[in-house]
User: Fold this.
Amino acid sequence: MELLDKLAILSDAAKYDAACSSSGVKRQFQAGRIGNTSSSIAGCCHSFSADGRCVTLLKVLMSNACVYDCKYCVNRRSNDTRRATFTPRELAELTIGFYRRNYIEGLFLSSGVLRDPDYTTEQMIRSLRLLRQEYRFNGYIHAKAIPGTSEELIYQLGLLADRLSVNVELPSEAGLRSLAPDKTVSAIFRPMGQIREQTAQSKAELTRYKHAPRFAPAGQSTQMIVGATGDSDRHILRLSQSLYDKYRLKRVFYSAYVPVVEHTLLPSPDTKPPLLREHRLYQADWLLRFYGFRAEELLTESQPDFNPRLDPKCNWAVGHLEQFPVEIMTADYERLLRVPGIGPTSAKRILSARRVSRLTFEDLKKMGVVLKRAQFFITCCGRQRSGLRFSDATLTGQLEQIERGELPPGEVEQLSLFESAG
Amino acid sequence: MAWTEIVFQYDGSFDGFLCCIYESYLNKEFPIAFYGDEECFSLYAVRLVITEHEHARRVLRSIVKRSARAAELLQKVFLTCMEDKELHLYAFVRKLYAEGSRFLKNQSDPIYHPLVKAIRHMNGELEKLRGFVRFSDYNGVLGGEIEPKNRVLPLLRGHFCSRYANESFFIYDRTHRELLLYAKGRSRILPVDALHLTLPGEEEMQYRRLWKCFYETIAIRDRTNPRCQNTHMPKRYRNTMTEFLPLDYEAQYQGAIPPKTPAASANPAVPTGKSALEIPPQSGRSAVASAL
Assistant:
């Protein structure tokens, strides 16, 4: 088979994995090796595909042959599709060739399960070893740890990769049992625990010995499919929170389920992927990681799903009006962060600027505060924004109006459908 | 003695601009406009400033003494495409001399804010270009072109020189007609009026094909979202990116150069291994990059 065909098949099979980051590790150029890793904390995006997602890594499967039969997956063994496998050398040359041309930041390697998890991981290790040792590749590598692989092999994999990820895929055990009968919850969380331990251990050793082996220096991430099962947003968000807390994950990615197959247990193939829901989950995820929110504050048992018409932060704020307005000149950092329209960057700018100047609403705008949201929740030197009219009763409607202008047209249709139904 | 209003004409370099500040304070002249190389028509008196590196150094030292960050800012903003950047920078330096660096804490300060905005714009472009620069392999030398609004080449230099430390490469800035050259641990930025690229070999074509194929495949059709794509990757960047160009864009875009024999394309003026790129005779523009 031509390399071009292989690449088409194996990137097509890998594209439903949402992980794209190339951040978390700073590795300088080393003499005799090719490349380095991005010095920016946000990683580096090299292109954006037609769906608006960033292209950072050469995202491919090593092979799309798979012995598993997960119902939601294009690569399941019962699916009649073309199969291909890269040789380690093809993969290494492709990575280097793309990297030299600045097409990519590195390699994202996953694979269908050939024979069993151990055998598959061995093949991945062989490829990565060739790339790192013979081709002297020094760029970013993200590798998938396949649930069920032995500890020793995962350790080997982690020494070659910068980041490892184990996909949770379905956010509940019931979902796994019905849709991914070959996977179990414990098989997913065991490698996650191992990666957490060994990353921490490697970090500790590195502080003592300069040349201690580096195990997955950029940590681990995971992905959950949203909308293939009936799990609520609250369930998913709480799971993410516990993953961040317990397993020290760097990122949880959410992937709106794209119906690729017809199955009685799955949403029908003409369902649209729940993109707005995915968007809300990402917004809430950011609130967990950078804004000091807890999942329980954002979603309650009585309201287990996100409001499609308001972003999670506004939604929280209109439910907690007793905490507002916040006075810009005196509020502490944590309080500022809770204001819709103010993020970590603008909050820090406010802290710095108010030491030398009395701030006005215009000043805030210059500092990057999204005033059209924030104006309802703040005062500057004790005063509200002049000309602003609202009451507790009209606030929600006004915020929804703003939000509607920002969502892509398709989502607005979904929203108006929502309204006519409600 | 009162300050007189005047137009400054200088050579367009950073050092030249610092000399304008020097002259301004020396002669008590307040700039109402700055002109670079272009001809200047004005009803005001024109002061022609000759670049003296000693004066430039003296001004820079005086700024560093008040705030090292302000000096760094000054150099960066000078690279941006902000309109009337010299006037904004002049106002900034005046405020710094008068009040010290305290106002730098407040990004909404009326004098400081325009500079912040210009830098944010340039940083955005820089961040994008670190990813969007596309290289082609021309007989072992990597080469790419960009069309930035700001003069980002001096700021991209560090990133690409460390990433491709073991390669030889060049990046050509079409907007500002500058060429960044790197080989064997040394880099230079030269003014170059036009760059002609010869057609690359079959291996390069194959990689372009592979990349285009990958780029097309990786998009999920059910999620097509051009608005989001345009936000992250404005269209103005795409005319130098492999995935949006025809395979043999060198031939199509550069006035269909007839393929040359290897002997004819070797240019004695450029180091060996750079035969793919031909630099036409220089036009006498000063090498501004050295100041940075």
In short: Chain B has ten helices and ten strands. Residues 4-122 of chain B form one domain. The longest helix of chain B spans residues 113-132.
